[in-house]
Amino acid sequence: MYKVDEIRDGLFGLVGWRENCDIHKFTIAEDLTLSESGKYFQDEHPLLTLDNIKSVAPDQGDKAFSEWLTLKTKAGIIKVIDTLYGRDVTTKDITSHIIGQKVLFADTISKQVAVDLLREFAYNPNFRISRSTQNVSKLELLYELDGDSASMKKSGLVHRLDMAYKAIGKKCIPKRIYGISIGSMT
Question: What pTM value is reported for the model?
């Protein structure tokens, strides 16, 4: 088990958002731009710009957009931890274990938030590509996410996310799973 609020707050700021290129258009809260790992969400896909993200957010000002983006980011963090650990993996509280190894989660969190937002682009009728980006259809966006379903070779951002989950699973899954001790937690 782990404390969701502590995990959400402890891993927030591990990966950051780059400020909008045109700061006269709109800005985001400073805490969203912090990146302890040096990773930024926009590096995961070229369509993941703040302009594009704002097009799927409820119509609102800078402060409300920052709050919405914070919620989306924190939801991605918890999705990663839930996927890796579940809610009731062990009776021991592993919150400090997770936060102590937080740098290991940066790549997976970055990809998870990117996948979630790009999928929201695909299924949101309000999605508008910024003027500097070429128009993309829903089918093309889903191809970017899921890859070619007819091919034997896996590709797409979802495949890269799966690979990140596998890599992190080998490094930091707790040593006591489902009540079976397989070593001590480090």
Answer: 0.83
Residues 55, 52: Cα–Cα separation, whole Å: 5
What whole-number distance in Å separates Cα of residue 132 and Cα of residue 46?
Answer: 11
pLDDT tens digits, one per residue of 95-122: 888 899 999 999 999 999 999 999 988 8
Rounded Cα gap, residues 166 and 95, in angstroms: 20
| Closest listed residue to residue 176, CA positions, set 112, 94, 118 | 94
Q: What is the C-alpha to C-alpha distance for residues 14 and 19, in angstroms, rounded to an integer?
A: 16
Residue 111 Cα to chain centre, angstroms: 5
Q: Give the Cα separation of 44 and 15 in Å (integer).
A: 11
Q: Which of 13, 62, 7 is nearest to 37 (CA)?
A: 13
Instruction: Measure the CA–CA gap between 103 and 35, rounded to whole angstroms.
Output: 11
